[in-house]
């Protein structure tokens, strides 16, 4: 049976000012244009204000500036930031199942592992020697947690996550299915054409409140640790190479590749499919737009872009032809400048 929530309950949860019926019950959240009488909706962009007066939602999450655009009879939760309030209410109403409840009979747990209170471990999971799982940790089905790894309170691993040995994961983290934490960094020496593998003896250290997307790989350090600080969010299918250090509050969108020994500052935003060179530093509060190719250090906060926006094939062929001729054009321009000076 679907749970229901009173508007007063939801208003209290997010500290909203309630206008309308405190007893009105809400069962779910829906988009602004499709929400029905038992649903809650929100507005996150002023360009959608015209829809407020037409909405059939049971209640609207709005800012003070949005109120004049709503019908007088609408139930409103008035907040400073409707999008943040929506996120908090969505968390409060979330009824997604856990990846494991209790300890499955088929789980293989070393007698030398330490489990806290209320730990759940799913079917066929493997927990090796020396592992420490703090209170309320959830390990999904088919997960592997390697020797001497430590996982903090309230952290949740979905199914099929592999965490290698000697990894440290903080509290209240969320790791989606297929992620690999602590795999070998890409370290090799070349002996006259023959690749010689360099053992990766560092670790991975992940802070608190970190989220890691499905099928993302975070390599262990060669000697020191790969470090992901608190409150970092990393999307699906990302590659974080050995000895990368990502600062607090940074967000990394899907498909990003970070080469080894890169340092990314705090509160950065890395757009999807970006590729970032290693052995350099990106300062705090940098935004790299999608498909950015970062070859040099970034020392000033701001927005940085590269990559060519999509064109028709005909336009792109002209652009490519001009690009190939840039060197010739540059030489001709310099020759003209010399002639003008003479």
Overall description:
Its EC number is 2.3.1.191. Keywords: Acyltransferase, Lipid A biosynthesis, Lipid biosynthesis, Lipid metabolism, Repeat, Transferase. It holds the Pfam family Hexapep. One of its GO terms (biological process) is lipid A biosynthetic process. It catalyses: a UDP-3-O-[(3R)-3-hydroxyacyl]-alpha-D-glucosamine + a (3R)-hydroxyacyl-[ACP] = a UDP-2-N,3-O-bis[(3R)-3-hydroxyacyl]-alpha-D-glucosamine + holo-[ACP] + H(+). The protein has 342 residues and is of the alpha/beta class. It folds into three domains: 5-93, 3-Layer(aba) Sandwich (Udp-n-acetylmuramoylalanyl-d-glutamate--2,6- Diaminopimelate Ligase, Chain: A, domain 1), CATH 3.40.1390; 108-304, Hexapeptide repeat proteins (UDP N-Acetylglucosamine Acyltransferase, domain 1, 3 Solenoid), CATH 2.160.10; 313-342. It has four helices and 38 strands. The chain has a ten-stranded parallel sheet, with no helix packed on it. Strand 21 (188-191) and strand 22 (194-197) form a beta hairpin. The protein starts with a strand and ends with a helix. The model has no long low-confidence stretch (mean pLDDT 97).
């Amino acid at each position: 049976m679907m749970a229901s929530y009173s508007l007063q309950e939801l208003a209290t949860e997010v500290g909203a000012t309630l206008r309308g019926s405190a007893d009105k019950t809400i069962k779910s959240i829906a988009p602004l244009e499709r929400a029905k009488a038992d649903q809650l909706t929100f507005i996150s962009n002023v360009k959608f204000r015209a829809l407020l007066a037409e909405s059939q939602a049971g209640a609207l999450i709005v800012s003070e500036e949005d109120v004049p655009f709503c019908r007088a009879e609408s139930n409103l939760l008035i907040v400073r930031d409707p999008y943040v309030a929506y996120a908090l209410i969505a968390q409060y109403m979330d009824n997604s199942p856990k990846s494991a409840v209790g300890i499955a009979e088929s789980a293989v747990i070393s007698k030398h592992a330490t489990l806290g209170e209320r730990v759940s471990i799913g079917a066929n999971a493997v927990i090796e020697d020396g592992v420490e799982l703090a209170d309320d940790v959830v390990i999904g089905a088919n997960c592997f947690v390697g020797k001497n790894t430590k996982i903090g309170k309230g952290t949740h691993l979905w199914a099929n996550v592999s965490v290698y040995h000697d990894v440290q994961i903080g509290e209240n983290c969320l790791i989606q299915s297929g992620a690999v934490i602590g795999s070998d960094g890409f370290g090799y020496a070349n002996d006259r054409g023959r690749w010689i593998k360099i053992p990766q003896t560092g670790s991975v250290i992940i802070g608190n409140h970190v989220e890691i997307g499905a099928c993302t790989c975070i390599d262990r350090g060669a000697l020191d640790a790969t470090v992901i600080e608190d409150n970092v969010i990393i999307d699906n299918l990302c590659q974080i190479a050995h000895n990368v250090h990502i600062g607090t509050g940074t967000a990394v969108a899907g498909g990003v590749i970070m080469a080894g020994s890169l340092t990314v500052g705090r509160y950065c935003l890395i757009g999807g499919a970006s590729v970032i060179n290693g052995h350099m530093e990106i300062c705090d509060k940098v935004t790299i737009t999608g498909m950015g190719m970062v070859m040099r250090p970034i020392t000033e906060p701001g927005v940085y872009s590269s990559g060519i926006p999509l064109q028709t094939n005909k336009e792109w062929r002209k652009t490519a032809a001009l690009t190939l001729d840039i060197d010739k054009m540059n030489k001709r321009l310099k020759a003209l400048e010399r002639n003008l000076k003479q």
